[in-house]
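Saturday, quiet lab. Running sequence design on the structure tokens for the scaffold JK sent over.
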């Protein structure tokens, strides 16, 4: 079928789809990386080829005609189908999986275990996105994420979850220097100051455990990774999330400062985007994360 002779310029059709979606010649030009005059020229050429106006030009606005809206709907669906087909081909050829998590979870839990997944799946390229701000799953950038909180989540489906416990931790050297006994005002406390209050601070820990001590932190950091680094260096006592500092408790670079512990309210959730396109790499990564989380 010689459909090419029956179709207008592909550049003009792409331009029209952008104008309709952005509802502006100017914004469409910015997205396409061309001038507004170039956009206007493409639309004019398309109108000439179709033999009718596609927009009603008003003083400070454009209004698409009924024919334009109909064509635009077809273009939007067609371009989306093309993009999905291209993504599927690229996914099969590259076999990439993108995993998202907080900086602390990536550093302390994910990265020490990631070599196991890579050895079992040498053909998969793993990309890790670590950030403490919420990772949006509806943007299509992340295939599977570990998110702390209480489900359900509007943008993702939880396939596994696990709780955690929190206890005061310090280095063996600091413990030797302070000696045995309950925490007190003479201890050096390390605080993590973050906007996201799902990270417990010392005030919350004292209140929730019913402790009567007065905590005045002598060190403060805005990243949990730094707080734990300071604790391992013998500079004080930090709140240790067992899932995150487990490897340090096992290798002896951290020890519990006292036996009290607190069950965290939220859970670590392995979550996949609601609108995610399934791939072999994503399914393997999600299954591995699920098994590792419960291992």
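Result came back. Writing it out in full:
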């Amino acid at each position: 079928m010689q459909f090419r002779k029956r179709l207008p310029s592909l550049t003009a059709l792409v331009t029209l789809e952008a104008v309709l979606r952005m509802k502006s010649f100017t914004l469409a030009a910015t997205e396409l990386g061309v001038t507004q005059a170039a956009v206007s020229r493409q639309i004019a050429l398309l109108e000439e080829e179709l033999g009718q106006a596609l927009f009603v030009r008003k003083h400070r606005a454009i209004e698409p005609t009924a024919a334009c809206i109909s064509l635009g709907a077809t273009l939007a669906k067609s371009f989306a189908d093309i993009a999905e087909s291209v993504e599927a081909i690229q996914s099969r050829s590259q076999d990439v999986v993108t995993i998202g998590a907080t900086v602390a979870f990536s550093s302390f839990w994910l990265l020490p275990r990631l070599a196991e997944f890579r050895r079992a799946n040498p053909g998969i390229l793993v990309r890790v996105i670590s950030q403490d701000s919420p990772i949006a799953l509806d943007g299509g950038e992340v295939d599977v994420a570990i998110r702390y909180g209480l489900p359900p989540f509007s943008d993702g489906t939880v396939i596994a979850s696990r709780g955690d416990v929190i206890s005061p931790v310090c280095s063996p050297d600091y413990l030797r220097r302070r000696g045995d006994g309950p925490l007190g005002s003479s201890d050096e406390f390390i605080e993590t100051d973050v906007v996201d209050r799902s990270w417990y601070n010392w005030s919350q820990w004292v209140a929730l455990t019913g402790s009567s001590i007065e905590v005045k932190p002598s060190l403060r950091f805005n990243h949990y990774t730094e707080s734990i680094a300071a604790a391992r260096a013998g500079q004080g006592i930090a709140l240790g999330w067992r899932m995150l500092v487990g490897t340090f408790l096992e290798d002896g670079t951290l020890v519990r400062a006292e036996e009290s512990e607190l069950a965290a309210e939220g859970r670590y959730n392995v979550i996949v985007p609601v609108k995610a396109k399934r791939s072999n790499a994503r399914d393997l990564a999600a299954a591995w994360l699920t098994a590792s989380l419960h291992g």
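Notes for JK: The chain has a mean pLDDT of 91. The first strand starts at residue 55 and ends at 57. Ask whether to fix the surface positions before the next round.
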